[in-house]
From TrEMBL, chain A:
Source organism: Streptomyces aurantiacus
UniProt name for this protein: ABC transporter permease
A Pfam family annotated for this UniProt entry: BPD_transp_1
Keywords: Cell membrane, Membrane, Transmembrane, Transmembrane helix, Transport
Topology of the protein relative to the lipid bilayer: Multi-pass membrane protein
Domain ABC transmembrane type-1: 102-323
Gene Ontology CC annotations of this record: plasma membrane
GO biological process: transmembrane transport
TrEMBL record, chain B:
GO CC term, one of those recorded: plasma membrane
Lineage, uppermost ranks: Bacteria, Bacillati, Actinomycetota, Actinomycetes, Kitasatosporales
Record CDD domains: TM_PBP2
BP term (GO), one: transmembrane transport
Protein name: Sugar ABC transporter permease
Amino acid sequence: MAISTSTPPDGAPGTAPSDGSGTGTERQRRRTLLHRLDVRGAPYAFVAPFFVVFAAFSFYPLIYTSWISLHRVELSTLDVMEWVGFDNYTALWEDDRFWNALFNTFTIGVLSTVPQLLMALGLAHLLNYQLRGSTFFRVAALTPYATSVGAAALVFTMLFERDFGMINWMLSLFGVDNVDWENNKWAAQTAISTIVIWRWTGYNALLYLAAMQAIPRDRYEAAAIDGASRWQQFLKVTVPGIRSTIVFTIVLSTIGATQLFGEPLIFGQGPNGITGGADNQYQTLGLLLYEEGWKNYQMGRAATVAWAMFLLLIVVFIVQRLVARVLARRA
Amino acid sequence: MTTDSIPVETADARPGTAQKERKDSPRGKRSRQLFRHPGAGRQHHAGPVAYILLGIASLFSLFPLYWTMVAASSDNTRVTQSPPPFLPGPHLLENLGKAWQDAALGKAMLNSMIVAGVIALSTVLFATLAGFAFAKLRFKGRNVLLMLVIGTMLVPPQLGVVPLFMLMTELGWGQRLPAVIFPTLVSAVGVFFMRQYLTEALPDELVEAGRVDGAHSLRIFWSIVLPIARPPMAVLFMITFVHAWNDFFWPFIVLDMTNPTVPVALTQLSAGYVRDQSLIMAGALLGTLPLLAMFIIFGRQIVGGIMQGAVKG
């Protein structure tokens, strides 16, 4: 501690003995006023930086996106905005690439999120045992999280290479022919999902592990008395015990999945990345947004895609809530 | 393991009570056995199967990084042969040097250091300030504002890129680092993380004692809160640094190859027409090394921080 709390810090106001003169009481009054101002105002000053940054760089852009989406704006002339009403939306609705990207975002989202969270749950369960070298296993699990999208996607692109990639070589040991991981739609989506899974499974496992360690032991004991097997205990005690964390990770990875961008971009290596493969076979909404705005120079269209992503997120959340409510009622 | 010591201790205190029950238990041998194997709790020692599975999981986690090193130390023909090489080759330094030049990684490294460093510092400062206010100061609208902070976590910043890009262009920050730094000066996760920590770790009496002594709020923050909050601040610094270093979407949009951060510069390596695979891997390795070093040194603390944020969050 820098100061002991029983002795006042040097020069702290309000502690100097007042000699009772007129100037002294006036000074004291000013001090109480300042003190009151400090007590009332300081908390707002302390939380203000967060709200200023959020308002300027998140909230305002989000709202302004909807306004831009009603205009034709080109990248080269950003200050020229031509009102087009809902033209961008009808154009997007009729655009096959949009539905394709929406569908891809959904399928890659499911392919990456579901196995990731299930594996994280299993990994957390293992890490929850009393282990020798538990720190090593935990740090090892988290290491992919330290790898940037850029580096991870480059490595996996090479591991998934058609002709000399490690994964096709391993498959060939089992007699599987070379898979064209880039051009085959489902193979490409699986490969991209693998990158996401690799980067985030350990992170989620640690979140689950933390929640598991907070479960009171007597619940396990009670279940054991009732004759529940280990597997039943896992289902009936562990999983309900970490429910709120599971919900939290589902929300986080859903947001991540709707925003997917870097993995498919780099997986496509160069010009093919932005379109999500030669046939858009793995173009996500994030990539479509970028293609419209920064390749086709149509910022109004890009804003429309962003707004569609936002709506998608809202729809997904509503569905999640409904599903959760139905499940809770059943349980 | 120091990270384990606290939870393990509290958990170890409980079997004592269980033991008492065991003696009193009327159910005899069967229940005694059950108590000895109380289920999925931490007290279970891991069997060989658990170790094997964890070994496999660790292998999956670490192998891609190991293989990056193998490929980065080989030449292109060795990387592209089949079966692929499993042991490092002799060309590591040569490739690292070439990749460093080809992708202009020197400038990218410096940029990433500046960006991640500034963002991490300001996040720690502002998050601790706000976290302290939310945890220990009383003010109107505190709960509503806290809910707002949590709610902002649900709004992915990517959705605002179009106006953000226009804003940055107007400010004259296009292709410049402030465009990347300013939008992430402080994060909701950070505010919440510090708030959770200070709510429990900072005794109300200390704050009140400071008040009685006539210290103003900033002074209390400086002299009482900061010393207590140092460990979570360090963790928040590292986690924010990792995130800022790895951030891709927005830097990729607003920066260009003349002034990139590391992840942006790495895309350059794979986009070329002549692809030298070993050079690409050398670049990927270089871009990851600073964070890997941080993980090797502070891995335990980072793991602890993520778990701490989770229990309460």
